[in-house]
Amino acid sequence: MAENLLEVQDLRKWFPIKGGLLGRTSGFVKAVDGATLGVEKGETLGVVGESGCGKTTLGRTVLKLTQPTGGRILFDGRDITSLRGRKAKPLRRRMQIVFQDPYASLDPRQTVRSALTEPMKIHGLARSRKEADAKASELISKVGLNPDHLARYPHEFSGGQRQRIAVARALAVSPDFIVLDEPTSSLDVSVQSQILNLLKALQRELGLTYLFISHNLAVVRQVCQRIAVMYLGRVVEMAETEALFESPKHPYTRALLSSVPIPDPSRRKALAVLEGDVPSPVNIPPGCRFRQRCEFATERCSEVSPPMKEVRRGQTIECLYDIDFATKRKVELS
Amino acid sequence: MTVRSEAQKEREGAAVLEVRDLRVSFHTYLGEVKALDGVDFDLRRGEVLGLVGESGCGKTVTALAIGGLLSDNARVEGGQVLLEGKDLLKETKEELRQTRLREVSFVFQDPMTFINPVLSVGSQIAEVLESDRVFQDELVEYRLDELAREESKGDLTRAQAEERQALEGLGRGKKLSKKVLKRLAESRALDYMRTVKLPDPERVFKMYPFELSGGMRQRVMIAMALVRRPKVLLADEITTALDVTVQAQVLKLLAELRGKIDASVILITHDLGVVSEICDRVVVMYAGNVVEVADIDELFANPLHPYTQGLLASIPRPDVHAEEMKSISGSVPNLIFPPSGCRFHPRCPKRFDRCPGVKPPLVEVKPGHKVACLLY
Amino acid sequence: MDAEPNSEEQMPKSGAMADLRYSLHLMSRNKLVLVGSVLATGSILVALLAHVLVPASATVDDRALRICWNNPLINWNIPSVNVCPPPVRPLGTDAYGRNLLQMIILAVPLDLSIALEIVASAVVIGIVLGSVAGYAGGILDEAILRITDIFFAVPGILLAIVLMTVLGRTIPNLTLAVLISWWPLYVRLIRSQVLSEKERPYVEALRAMGAGRMRILFRHIVPNSIYPLIVQATLDIGSVILTVSTLVFLGFAPSTIATGQTPELGSLTSQGAQYLFSAPWLIIFPGLAILIISLGFNLLGDGLRDVFDPRLRR
Ligand SMILES: Nc1ncnc2c1ncn2[C@@H]1O[C@H](COP(=O)(O)OP(=O)(O)O)[C@@H](O)[C@H]1O
Ligand SMILES: Nc1ncnc2c1ncn2[C@@H]1O[C@H](COP(=O)(O)OP(=O)(O)O)[C@@H](O)[C@H]1O
Ligand code: SF4
Ligand SMILES: [Mg+2]
Ligand SMILES: [Mg+2]
Questions:
Q1: Could you please report the per-residue DSSP string of C98-153?
Q2: B265, B347, B330, B268: which is closest to B45 by C-alpha?
Q3: Residue partners of A313: CB distance under 8 A and separation at least 6
Q4: With CB atoms 3.0 to 4.6 Å apart as the test, which of A282, B302, C167, C219 could cross-link to C173 if both were Cys?
Q5: B327–chain C Cβ distance below 8 A for any pair
């Protein structure tokens, strides 16, 4: 097993809910609530789950864009949990992020050239303006646009092109690790695959490590080596991509996978329907947090919070049982 | 809901709605947006027709044109929208409004834009029926039917009998009192809330839109659309904003409703997964043109138009892993200066010398399979 | 790198020219705005050219006075011998026998420059305090907000009157007095702009890039918050002129203005007030000048609001 570039242990990020006249904290949105995962050097780890399950918050916390409430984050072997402000600046050279909305993640009043050279200026990566401009030209060609585009403003580009610019900007500091937060969710399918191919090619060329956040399971299957499934702020299953798709072990993963429509009418099946909506991350019940929607839930599920268990090599779940979905037989995990 | 009459069954397969060579353009300061350039398709009775294509291809504009809901800067340049033979584009404003109320309903992607935030959802559904006289007779008939069914099960209570007498005494077209109208409409609304499987409908009836989840709001929208018993239901990207799990719930609901409602459905989506899940036939649009029409199985097994082929190849599939993903180069053109000839030619891997010059007509290459490409 | 590079879309050939064209298109849609732009630019031109339009020698208009003197047919039996009605001079003469039109022209640069100074200073204070309050949040925000509250609570004119009385009646003090009641508005405005702007994803992207607070705030957030400020400032030039001339009208004017040595629209009006019934043009014309200038800037501001409206953009 390769070494982990990023390790997240029992990470928590709670947002206080301010209420009442005096602005007292009346509770917490437990956006991330005990997530554990590791990202190996050079791989793409997918993070999937329904909206509101804490994917974005996980990404932001890992990048230290927001301070974690608890747990530990190790990057390249160093504990970065409490780094902040100026101390976190060296980190920003090594970790970058690409956001979902290419229309909002670029400063509308900044030319592409200025957007690409700004990170170099901040980190002193270019000795002169000329060098910075040369680097910007190189970056823009790398993402499949051409240097003529450098003088333009973001509104002159289509969504896909803007996302390319956002990728180029992330690459400007030559990072090792990039969080991709739904990078293709607002793009059309035909453009989506262009961007995904680009990301893959860049990874091969530059040896990048990705944390790929997405709600689209089909996309994740194409680009990720391993996948972490999140539910209500926790990673409930983690496995290699093929293993996860071929034989999911957590009831939630299974429900999620079988609710994805397959674009092939000859394989039309009745979609398995998971009833109900994602519960609110404010009042999380004790025990397994999936139990209200789980068809296999037992008495014990409401009493014991399932710990992370390895059910197969490289496949861990947070469920009390190892369930055979075909026969519906379950074996208690000790 | 209602049992289909024999006559209706006979007409099955015939078109409820025919869109013929529809052309719509928008006037903007940058120039004329030629949004629809000869859109042509049929919606058959009882079917679910998928309308697919990338964003900006004119799917929503098509729907709005059918419903007469285009914005002020839009102009219908030509064509026909025939609902059971009568041309909706020729109707006066008032006629169109009435037709729309009774026969064409919409469900949109973002329910919040169409729900009044300060009215309870139940009263909003009922309001649809109360607000217009055209529904009154129907409400009365519906209630009488209900009472008749009640009677066949056992005796009516005294109150029910009196109610029936009162309703029967009412001539057609006579005005109901506000109170009675409201009661009838609300009971009908509640009925439809059950139809769309809203959990605990009596309670949800009194709830406000913000108290509902996205999936429940979409169900409310569907109930609101169905309560008028339309002939055509236009559903524009209704599952796009939902999570896959909730999307599956809504798709399942649509599948269940198929047997129960009279409406034929046009399901607009850019997601071919959704299409393959519940549609019978598919219309593929590109840049304001219909480029291919086929039965669902035929379309996926044997796509003819290079755009359809590209689209199918570029969707990531949840059931297989592909090392390199296919894509269509470029993106949907700006429709102020649409490409000449075949509008797809700048992106088409199979283009040849005639493509930039000749606009391909939509031709039937096989029974039920039409394509607009010069290759065929 | 990619199989199909940069073939993605043929966006309209936009850029600065198209942007400008669109702006003009938006402006020209509204007739009133067009009128506003003409009036506002007109008054700025008058201000810039005042000393060219009015010859330096033009003080007391002897010829006019000679025509009027002892000529009841012409001078309408006005008590002050120096006042002459139009059309002897285009707008008549004032109580000192000076050509009223020339006086109004000479007054415009003074009024406009006071207004500009006040608005510009308010904008600068607003940007500094407002952006710091909005971006830093917490105690600093709270403190700055409370201070603006205090100033909001006191009626502006009253505050200015008290200040003028205490500090003495000079032009800088007049400017200061109006400024003091004016700046809090801009702090509020910029603060709310910054508050919404800082939640935009590009700010987060900048943070992830390692950009410092000052860079993010002054190079990105403030320039992006500036449009509503420009609109407000334009609207306010009109209102400030109105306020300043009101103060002067009420008598809170430096002695040079009050005695009429330095022409100012408010003082011209107030002098005219003495002859309200006998020589109404003395109050009507300077009053109209105030109205036209402030209306011009107001309409222009409204137009700019349309032009900068993000909903009409993009
Ligand atoms: N800054 C914030 N303040 C308060 N609550 C937040 C904040 N950011 C996210 N949340 C809440 O945390 C939960 C997880 O959000 P998010 O991480 O964005 O989920 P996802 O990306 O999986 O859709 C949601 O309930 C959301 O409302
Ligand atoms: N109100 C409008 N004014 C100007 N152009 C419009 C308007 N509505 C739609 N369009 C244009 O019409 C084309 C088709 O749009 P639309 O039907 O919304 O696409 P789709 O629903 O397939 O994503 C697009 O090019 C769009 O820019
Ligand atoms: S622990 Fe229980 S409730 Fe949770 S997923 Fe497993 S079986 Fe279902
Ligand atoms: Mg997210
Ligand atoms: Mg649409």
A1: BBHHHHHHHHHHHHHHHHHHHHHHHHHHIIIIIHHHHHH-HHHHHHHHHHHHHHHH
A2: B265
A3: none
A4: C167
A5: yes
**Do B330 and C12 count as a contact with CB atoms less than 8 A apart?**
no
| Inter-helix orientation angle A159-171/A189-206, to 10° | 20
Q: What are phi and psi of A315, to 5 degrees?
A: -125, 110
- Tell me the C-alpha distance between A67 and A87, whole Å: 13
Within its chain, how far is the Cα of A162 from the centroid? Answer: 20
Read off the tokens for A300.
């014990």
Can you name the residues that pair with A25 across neighbouring β-strands?
A: A18
Largest CA distance in chain B: 80
Question: Which of 44-63 (B) contact A at CB < 8 A?
Answer: 54-55
Burial of B219 (0-12, 13-18, 19+ CB in 10 A): buried
pLDDT > 70 fraction of chain C, expressed in percent and rounded: 76
For the cut 80, the answer to whether the pLDDT of residue C86 exceeds it is no
State the number of CA atoms in the 13 A half-sphere of A190 facing the CB.
24
Q: Is the CB of B327 under 6 A from ligand 2?
A: no
Structure tokens at B46: 């009882």
How many whole angstroms separate alpha carbon C237 and alpha carbon C298?
8
Question: Cβ–Cβ of A221/B243 closer than 8 Å?
Answer: no
Name the residue of A12, A13, A15 to mutate for ligand 1: max ligand atoms within 8 A of Cβ: A15
Closest CA to ligand 2's atom 25: B56
Chain B contact set for C11 (CB, 8 A)? 334
Q: Tokens standing for B256?
A: 């269940």
Q: Is A208 exposed, middle or buried (0-12, 13-18, 19+ CB in 10 A)?
A: buried
Q: Which residues, other chains included, contact A29 with Cβ-Cβ below 8 Å and sequence gap of 6+?
A: A14, A15, A17, A281, A282
What long-range pairs does A273-277 form, CB within 8 A, spacing at least 24?
A273/B245, A273/B248, A273/B249, A273/B252, A274/B245, A274/B248, A274/B249, A275/B249, A277/B213, A277/B214, A277/B215, A277/B216, A277/B246
- Distance from the C37 Cα atom to the nearest Cα atom in chain B, whole angstroms: 22
Our CA-based measurement puts residue C30 at a distance from the nearest CA of chain A, in whole angstroms, of 26
**Which DSSP letter does residue C215 get?**
I
Using DSSP's 3-state secondary structure scheme, residue B222 falls into helix
Q: Which ligand is nearest to the CA of A51?
A: 1
Tokens describing residue C211: 């950009």
The pLDDT value given to residue C9: 40
Residues of C in contact with B333 (CB under 8 A): 9-10
A182 phi, psi to nearest 5 deg: 50, 55
pTM of the model: 0.86
- How many angstroms away from the CA of B89 is the closest CA of chain C? 30
- Taking only the tens of pLDDT, chain B with its 376 residues reads 334 445 444 445 688 999 999 999 999 877 899 999 999 999 999 999 999 999 889 999 999 999 888 888 999 999 999 998 888 888 887 887 777 778 899 898 887 777 788 889 999 899 888 877 778 878 888 888 888 888 888 777 888 888 888 877 776 666 778 888 888 899 889 989 998 988 889 999 999 988 888 888 999 999 999 988 899 999 999 998 888 999 999 999 998 888 888 899 999 999 999 999 999 999 999 999 999 999 999 999 999 999 999 999 999 998 888 888 888 888 888 888 899 999 999 999 999 999 999 999 999 999 999 999 999 8
Three-state DSSP class for residue A173: coil
Does the C-beta of A15 come closer than 6 Å to ligand 1? yes
Judge whether B262 is closer than 8 Å to chain A, CB to CB. Answer: no
Mutate to test the interface with B, among C1, C4, C17, C27 (most CBs of B within 10 A): C4
Give me the total of CB pairs closer than 8 Å, taking one residue from chain A and one from chain C.
Answer: 99
Question: For B133, which DSSP code?
Answer: G
User: Three-state DSSP class for A4?
Assistant: strand
3-state SS class at C85 = coil
